[in-house]
From TrEMBL, chain A:
Residues 1-22 form the signal peptide. Keywords: Signal. InterPro entries: Bact_solute-bd_prot1 (IPR050490), DUF3502 (IPR022627), SBP (IPR006059). It comes from Paenibacillus helianthi. This is DUF3502 domain-containing protein. Pfam families: DUF3502, SBP_bac_8. PROSITE patterns: PROKAR_LIPOPROTEIN. Residues 440-508 form the DUF3502 domain. It comes from the Bacteria.
TrEMBL record, chain B:
Residues 75-293 form the ABC transmembrane type-1 domain. Belongs to the binding-protein-dependent transport system permease family. This is Sugar ABC transporter permease. The keyword Cell membrane applies. It comes from the Bacteria. Its main location: membrane. It is a multi-pass membrane protein. Keywords: Cell membrane, Membrane, Transmembrane, Transmembrane helix, Transport. It comes from Paenibacillus helianthi.
Length: 511, 307
């Protein structure tokens, strides 16, 4: 009996402790609803933007500036929400799932998932009336086929952001190191020319790692994008790579069984064996850009539009960076709909939302207020196309800026550029939008819902094997067959079949 | 005991009830209300139709857990790791608690206790970087400062699965044993000192006292704590199994648990039906295990059973 009593009090004390602890974690739900103004005539919408800059504590000034534009032009009041990239998807999903008001948001996952779960509203009926200007500028900057990438079963579910979408693979390198090693950039024409450069750099400075991954955790060396562009691989909108079409034969295959993949990985393996990559590239937490800034890295592969990116990267790294294109880009659907603005299916203000989207793509004032804040306080105008920060301020000290979201907001051709960026580069990007080759399956969107069990298993297998393969850390001769048999095990066959069936149907509908 | 409690006047139990109220409220709001949501595990969630209007799809959401040969690996890993954590964790915690209670100098005992609890306050992310500083292939402490000077072959820790069962157990015990010892320490402090005194008069040494008095009297506490951890045997510390091995694919055979599998599988799909299914599955297995273990305890020693 004595023991029992002891247990009872132990349990009770745990309950009490639990309640004390829980008190610490429950105070953050009070400040969600502000700026609620009950005006019957003005429609009110919630607009959520991801920002890669510091999130300011007080958004009221910029919200007021946005509202001054929108209430005057379209009679819509905007509740402007700004979330960091890590928070964004979570906050938006939470709002969508809990039924909180959330009208306009962007994809930070796969477009088709939102559609197959009916999270987004079809817009095709509203666009001709409220989105005329927007469709016009999209046609002008990209081409009339852009909305194909967000059309499923005849419904338009979103508007892709309007910017330079072609991201040809570049080799980005430290120009000073290259000159030191006595190599000229002109010798680089394709990826085959790189090992000679790496060898020269390594010989000159043995401590430098010649090549690194552009992204880490999971490690991505840019190899897959290089192969996609160079060999015309269409991933058919999902990211796994088990169902792709190479070229234009219309046959869905497992990319990891193809010779393109084998050869690419073999090349990376050779680089790795020659010591051009770090031993722990597959699991490292330091990406190539950080290596370059610290003076220990030389180069990496990445997809960049335009020709001016070297300047931006130089400023970031504090080194003289130059870029050289080594492979073209290839437009498949997900290259274009990766960032797409959508209207929630639970929105009660779809009309107002489309009106706002229309403005978001066509109104110079609105676009730049969202990106740079209030003129005079957050930025100063230099000339027609360029801005700078006020005297003595930078991106971290101005009251508001979301300038790093420039790839997400509206039309790039209407955005102000930061002082020092060559305006002709914007024109070049738009020209490349039109010139870049489109996949014959451009516009096809794979609906994953029939095979989501298999997809979930395949995602796991890919995350197990791919980072090690694309970084050359394992022997492709033995690992690729293992990888493929694990994929088969996980149901890759079913995904390929389902994709082929949907693709055939889509092709038939196109005729 | 319940009969006795009922006969007590409300006036006497009221202070206790008030004391328990915040905790009970917490459990009702955070544990019991959300339980109504389990039906989502059997639905194909469609936002336009709403949660209640979505189609019932039976057990389809559960199939992804058993889709591949990984199902066996992750279940095995989750179960074995947790069993080892529970067994070894309990033993080490008790040893620490006994050692602490034998320390006569209060200053020392407080100092060591604080030191032992400290690892528990370190977040897994920070811990994963600490581990990385030790194991990193090029400049890690183990390779760079131990193996290399000794002329031993260096080990690429993040691509050799065979070391990780030991590493993970070591890390987990290091992190949690000190904190886990608090309850045992408190129980030992509650043991009547006169028992030890009479044992001493009878000629029992320190070891004998521990074996014959401390350990038997700790038994009920051990049983409660083990029973409670049994309920979470199908869950794993996500940080320990995802962050600490640096999400390295090569290590999946020894680091994949149900939680990391679900995370990797559903990151792209964002399907709440399937994640609800995974959670329900883990809870059901944990619930069944608690019941089973409790029944066994009841059979062997009814005094110590939880309910």
């Amino acid at each position: 009996m004595k023991n029992k009593k002891g247990l009872g009090s132990l349990l009770l004390s745990m309950v009490v402790c639990g309640s004390l602890l829980s008190a610490c974690g429950s105070n953050s739900n009070t400040s969600a609803k502000n700026s609620g103004n009950d005006n019957a005539k003005v429609a009110e919408i919630v607009f959520a933007l991801p920002s890669f800059n510091r999130i300011p504590d007080d958004l009221s000034k910029v919200t007021n500036a946005i509202n001054a534009i929108t209430t005057k032009k379209i009679g819509v009041k905007v509740d402007f929400r700004l979330y960091g990239p890590a928070d964004y998807a979570q906050k938006v999903n939470l709002a969508l799932q809990s039924g909180e008001k959330m009208d306009i948001f962007t994809t930070l996952g796969q477009f088709s998932n939102y559609v197959s779960k009916s999270q987004v509203a079809p817009l095709e009926k509203l666009l001709p009336q409220y989105g005329k200007e927007m469709t016009a500028i999209l046609d002008k900057d990209f081409g009339p086929d852009i909305l194909k990438t967000t059309t499923m079963d005849g419904h338009i579910y979103g508007i892709p952001v309007n910017k330079g979408m072609a991201l040809p693979t570049n080799i980005i390198y430290n120009a000073d190191m290259m000159a030191d090693a006595g190599v000229s950039a002109d010798t680089i024409q394709s990826v085959e020319d790189l090992p000679a450069v790496f060898a020269a750099v390594k010989k000159k400075s043995p401590d430098v790692v010649p090549f690194g991954p552009i992204n880490v955790n999971p490690t991505d060396t840019g190899l897959v994008n290089l192969m996609k562009g160079a060999s015309k691989v269409d991933y058919l909108t999902d990211t796994t790579g088990v169902g792709v079409v190479i070229g234009d034969n219309g046959k869905v295959v497992n990319f990891y069984e193809s010779d393109v993949f084998k050869n690419g990985v073999k090349m990376m393996r050779d680089w790795y064996n020659a010591g051009y990559l770090q031993k722990d590239t597959a699991t490292t937490t330091v990406n190539a850009m950080e290596m370059v800034s610290s003076g220990r890295g030389f180069s990496f592969l990445g997809g960049y539009s335009g020709m001016e990116v070297g300047k931006t990267l130089s400023a970031q790294a504090g080194k003289k960076m130059e870029t050289k294109r080594i492979a073209p880009f290839y437009f498949d659907t997900s290259a274009v709909n990766a960032v797409t603005w959508m209207v929630s299916s639970t929105s009660k203000e779809t009309e107002a939302s489309v009106k706002f989207l229309n403005l978001l793509y066509t109104d110079t004032d609105l676009i730049n207020t969202i990106l740079y804040g209030v003129e005079g306080e957050d930025y100063l105008k230099v000339d027609e196309h360029h801005v700078k920060f006020p005297e003595g301020k930078d991106a971290n000290t101005v009251p508001y800026t979301a300038m790093l979201s420039s790839g997400i907001v509206g039309s790039e051709s209407l955005q102000y550029q930061f002082e020092g960026i060559n305006w002709s580069d914007i024109e070049l990007k738009l020209k490349e939008n039109k010139d870049t080759e489109r996949s014959p399956y451009f516009g096809f969107i794979f609906d994953q819902s029939p095979v989501k069990t298999q997809m979930s298993a395949v995602n796991n297998v890919v995350s197990q094997f791919l980072p090690a393969l694309v970084s050359g850390s394992v022997d492709p001769e033995t690992i690729i067959p293992k990888f493929n048999s694990a994929l088969k095990d996980a149901g890759a066959g079913a995904i390929i079949d389902s994709k082929q069936e949907q693709l055939d149907k889509w092709l038939a509908a196109q005729k | 005991m319940t009969a006795k409690a009922k006969s007590k006047p409300l006036k006497k139990t009221l202070p206790l009830l008030i004391l328990a109220a915040p905790g009970l409220l917490y459990f009702i709001i955070n544990s019991y209300f959300p339980m109504f949501g389990v039906f989502i595990a059997f639905k194909d969630v469609n936002y336009a139709k709403g949660i209640f209007g979505s189609d019932w799809i039976g057990l389809k959401n559960f199939t992804f857990l058993f889709q591949t040969s990984d199902a066996w690996i992750m279940t095995r890993n989750t179960l074995l790791y947790n069993l080892v954590f529970i067994a070894l964790g309990t033993i080490v915690s008790i040893i620490i608690a006994i050692l602490m209670s034998e320390l006569l100098n209060k200053m020392y005992s407080k100092f060591f206790m604080t030191g032992l609890i400290l690892p528990n306050l370190i977040s897994m992310i920070v811990l994963s970087l600490l581990v990385f500083a030790f194991l990193n292939a090029d400049s890690g402490f183990v390779n760079h400062s131990i193996l290399r000077p000794l002329g031993l072959p260096e080990i690429n820790w993040y691509s050799e699965p065979k070391y990780w069962p030991y590493l993970l157990v070591l890390i987990q015990i290091w992190k949690t044993a000190g904190y886990g010892s608090i309850v045992y320490f408190a129980s030992i402090a509650g043991i009547d000192k006169s028992i030890y005194e009479s044992a001493k008069i009878d000629g029992a040494g320190k070891l004998k006292q521990i074996r014959m008095i401390t350990l038997p009297l700790l038994k009920p506490t051990v049983i409660v704590l083990v029973l409670m951890s049994m309920g979470r045997i199908f869950n794993s510390d996500f940080g320990l199994f995802y962050q600490v091995p640096m999400n390295s694919g090569a290590l999946f055979s020894t680091t994949q648990t149900i939680d990391t599998y679900v995370y990797r599988a559903l990151m792209q799909l964002n399907d709440i039906g399937m994640s609800a299914a995974a959670g329900l599955y883990q809870s059901l297995v944990g619930f069944a295990l608690v019941l089973t273990v409790n029944t066994i305890v009841k059979k062997v020693n009814p005094e110590n059973a939880l309910f």
